[in-house]
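Late entry, evening session. Most of the bench is empty. Finally got around to the prediction I had been postponing all week. Sequence below, unchanged from the version circulated by S.P.
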Amino acid sequence: MVSSNKNTKAAADSSDTVNADNPRYVSRLTKDTLALVLAGGRGSRLYELTNWRAKPALYFGGKFRIIDFPLSNCINSGIRKVGVLTQYKAHSLIRHIVSGWSHFKKELNEFVDILPASQRFSDDWYQGTADAIYQNIDIIRAEAPKYVMVLSGDHIYRMDYGSMLVRHVESGADMTVSCLEVPIEEAAGAFGVMQVDSESRVLGFEEKPEHPRPIPGQEDLTLASMGNYIFNTDFLFEQLAKDAMDPKSSHDFGNDVIPAIVDTRRVFAYPFRDPATSERAYWRDVGTLDSFWEANMELVEPVPALNLYDPDWPIWTYQSQYPPAKFVFDSDDRRGMAVDSTVSGGCIISGATIRKSLIYSNVHVGDCSYIEQSLVLPDVRIGKNCKVHKAIIDRKCTLPDGIEIGVNHEQDRANGFRVTEKGVVLVTRGMLGQPEGYA
């Protein structure tokens, strides 16, 4: 009987390692994975919106921050060993992670750790994406994962990393790069692009080319990297050591590491697709003011492209304990109301009208003000008789009574506000002559 039980257990273990549809098999892969989220970028094309915060700390969707999306993807995928690599103006990012993501149990081998640029292997701060991982190689080695997942910390999407891990293992890859089809004009100068064979093996990789190569048969599309990678750990160590010794390297995965290995090692692409439709999945790079505004505005559509209401894949975050949103006064000339909008906790809409806008937490809007197609970030105070159209109002701004924003762009510029090519107006505390600080 003992021998029979052992044989049964061996057969079960064997089936776990070959059956990709077996949840136990996937969970073994995720438990053997350490995720490292690169969250040190400034996001310079967001201009004053990132003067006091790193891009991953930027608010999004009415109550979240951008960093919440890759972190939620990790937790929902079963990856519970996560490091967040920080660098540029990281105070608000660190404070958010400590407040909202520090409840995991180290005793259960789960954590979300903050990994600042601490110069353990160099006198320099993080010099590139590969260098950022290399400077934390001792931490990776101490955790002894079988796989290391490197994730960009500044994109909006929902993704099951377990499926990507399965594909990585089944293909026998040394490295897997997540990718999606992107219009050539959108990818030019903005994304790493790759060429693959019929089995999705990467044959060539260029970082942010001005003229990306099209996908064969789809001349208007190119295959773009999402900046998410899976490595076999030993292979990663080997490549990081080589790259660190190369004085000509910029120590970046896209610029240096991937192009150097595609000819000789097994690098595979993983197309990111919607599991329900097999079409390109939702993914947004909110790297400009216009794209940030547009991605937020998509959320107030009756059926938004990104479903934040899915209980099977929640986006986790830290929430202050605010009271419910409140709408007061109901007369023809003074009605507190919101239409085609989201309004978060702690807000008071006092005799004001909100249309097709996202009002973040703890915002107060005064009598007879009109807010349309705008993003109002947390803790903003808007006075009486204000008109705000197609604008981004940064956190803690106080708008005086009667101000008009987005109504006359010449006046907006004269007031010191930033107006984008698509007519979005950015207003920050500094532009209003109000004290600035971490956000």
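Two things to note before I forget:
The domain at 326-432 is CATH 2.160.10.10 (UDP N-Acetylglucosamine Acyltransferase; domain 1).
The radius of gyration is 24 Å.
Will write this up properly tomorrow.
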